[in-house]
Amino acid sequence: MSLRKAIGKIHLWLGLASGPVVFVVAITGCLYAFQKEIQDWTQPFRFVERQSAPFLPPSVLKDVAEKELPNRHIHAVQYLGPDRAAQVIFYNPDPEYYYLVYVNPYTAEVLAVKDMARDFFAIVLDGHFYLWLPPHIGQPLIASATLVFVVMLISGIVMWWPRKKKHMRQRFSIRWSAKWKRINYDLHNVLGFYAWAVAILLACTGLVWGFQWWANGLYQAAGGEKSLIYSEPASDTTQVYPANAPAIDKVFAIMQQEYPNARTIEVHIPVTAASPVSANANPDDETYWQLDYRYYDQYTLQELPVDHIYGRYDEASVADKLLRMNYDIHTGAILGLPGKFLVFFASLLCASLPITGFMIWWGRKNKKKRSPETLRNSEPKTERYRPKQQVILEKVEDI
Predict the structure, then answer these.
(1) 228-244 burial by CB neighbour count: b if 16+ within 10 A, else e?
(2) Tell me: the pLDDT tens digits for 16-47?
(3) How far is 125 from 203, CA to CA, in rounded Å?
(4) Is the dihedral of CA 250, 254, 260, 261 positive or negative?
């Protein structure tokens, strides 16, 4: 067996094995590409009228939201700009729940309460990450299929490459005038080539969440030296906080003062007595890689350092920024709206590849099953295919 045929076999069987998972991941990626724009268009409670008054502090919004969802743990309070509702985030891993309470940051009026377990885009994202399975099952399954997809993309470009230079031109266009089998073959080959570069990028950035060894390898190859695992520093529990104002309000005031041009500011509620008050600020509400993460002792309000990549932006190395960019690269947001369109269409083409590839295999499989006798019997009974003797006899009878 030649090397090219061996690569073709590998491409075939890996494709049949991973195709359904790749299809789901690609389709859900398409659906999620414009989730922010669609939600802004369909959910008016996300917006408020801009006022000249200052924002109410996090403790006020927290108290109002707790009345809507008593006995639930508040994860954070997020301010999204002067013309948007603030979000009070309720989250707990076990038992798992995730709610968003939208509150007017000027008046503390509750505008909406969303159970994210029933949110359309949250369901789509659950399919994209876990195939709607328990995370400990779905996550490694998605990651493994994505790794297989990378191998298929590499083997696919080898098979796409023509053996002779004179055939290169036909590899870039679809022969719409040909029969359906040829059109389907071209759809797989040609569209696969055009989506190849973006598909590789999407798969490689997706693997950062799929395998820790992949993320560490990419980070270290870029020269990174910090930890990729998020952790919070501890507050000094021997100290006593002066109860003149809630610590979360004071941290919010610090963030407002240090980041007057921030598009978003988020303050996290301490989970335990040793937890810090963590906060972040973002100068761009369309991406996440420029987030500045800060951690404060909840008793002394002293800033606490961290040894992972989720720290101050001005202290981030090139490798740190590369890993921070991973989500924005994966979604195309790093290039703005054009990048989202690019990712949308590339994901759509990736979703088509398992279908067209399966149809190519199915057509060849059925062709091999058909015997020469079956092929003769299936051909039209025209003069061209009738025995010569039969044609002569018919002509004699006519005379």
Answers:
(1) beeebbebeeeeeeeee
(2) 889 999 999 999 999 999 999 999 999 999 99
(3) 16
(4) negative
